[in-house]
Amino acid sequence: MAEPLKNMFNLGFIVPFSEVCNKHIPNFNKNHFINAVFDDNWENLELKPRIKHIAHSLHKQLTDSIPINLNYITAISEDIRINQNKQDTFMYLVLCDYIEVYGLEHLKESLIAIEKVTILASCEFAIRPFIIKDPEYVFKTLNNWSKNNHPSVRRLASEGCRPRLPWGMGIPFLKINPSLIFPVLENLKDDDSLFVRRSVANNINDISKDHPSKILSLLKKWIGVSKERNWLVKHAARTLLKQGNSDALKLFGYGDVTNFETTVIHLLKNKVCIGDYLCFTFSIKNKSNKAQKVRLEYFIYFLLAKGKLSKKIFKISERNLTANETLYYKRRHSFKIISTRKYYTGIHKVSLVINGVEKETDNFQLNK
């Protein structure tokens, strides 16, 4: 079993980190800092509370002046980045968290610190309270960052303002009106770095969940310029495609579902045990006299604790079928126990989805 991320914050991290802090913070006491981190409650803390606790323990060693402290945080991050040759390092989110917790009343100084620290550890979570506090000022900064020489800073310009950033603080006004985001994304849509373009695609995908028509209009303008741009557009439209949005499917050339003839899903077993696989087969034929592009997916309708069904879509493939071509598929879906889903015994369902159109469902029994 994988080691929990929270265990990365151990003596092997804290002691070297305290040595760097000691170089830049006057009167820093390494022993006091280490003892403050590993207090009586440390073992009870999960990942995010541990990060916050380390930042709080660091603050006890600093001055009463937050701007001065932010200079120390920047110096520490630059030391680690340059002298230890580290970049995009998860563990130094401690420094990002410090800025988020203690720097909110010092907007200008905090943004200067964030621009430096994000090269060592992404400040995509830390920037969000500042966006809420002063969106006009922060978005001017994000626009400037979108033209920065360093890809980590450019990526932060997009990633930090995602309306639905996973595990990040929500920004409700951006879900309602994302207009402030678009100039940033326009600057970054053809960025040299895939790291940055992926963030742009993820941001657009977030927006599409609340404003599908607005995003479709944008993607229609963007598509067809380059291979890299086409990849971004496709990745940005993934939720719309999963939802079977007809305009999104047309944008990528998926054929009319009536051009295809499919067999009903055939279950190899209609009783499956938790820990085993659901196996099914089907075939699909292109009935037309020219090639057709097809996107194949399937829904699993999972039984929930209260007896309702909740469906989740899974991709099978995308390909072109030549005229009158028939393909035969055998697919298996794992019901092995995972941490992100709890399985309940009882009747579940499965169905095939062709170019966003769901076909007939079939039932199967999930047993212990």
Description:
The protein has 368 residues and is of the alpha+beta class. Helix content is 43%, strand content 20%. It contains 16 helices and nine strands. The strands form two sheets. A five-stranded mixed β-sheet has the order 3-9-8-5-6, with no helix packed on it. A hairpin with a 5-residue loop joins β5 and β6. The longest helix is centred in the N-terminal third of the chain and has 18 residues. The protein starts with 10 loop residues before the first helix and ends with a strand.
Helix content: 40-55%
Order of helices and strands: HHHHHHHHHHHHHHHHEEEEEEEEE
> What is the end-to-end distance?
22 Å
Tell how many strands the DSSP assignment holds. 9
Strands of the biggest beta sheet: in what spatial order? 3-9-8-5-6
Radius of gyration, rounded? Answer: 25 Å
General form:
globular
- The averaged pLDDT comes out at 95
From the helix content, strand content and strand pairing, which structural class follows?
alpha+beta
Number of helices: 16
Tell me what portion of residues adopts beta-strand conformation.
15-25%
Give the uncertain stretches in residue-range form: none
Biggest β-sheet strands, sense, barrel: 5 strands, mixed
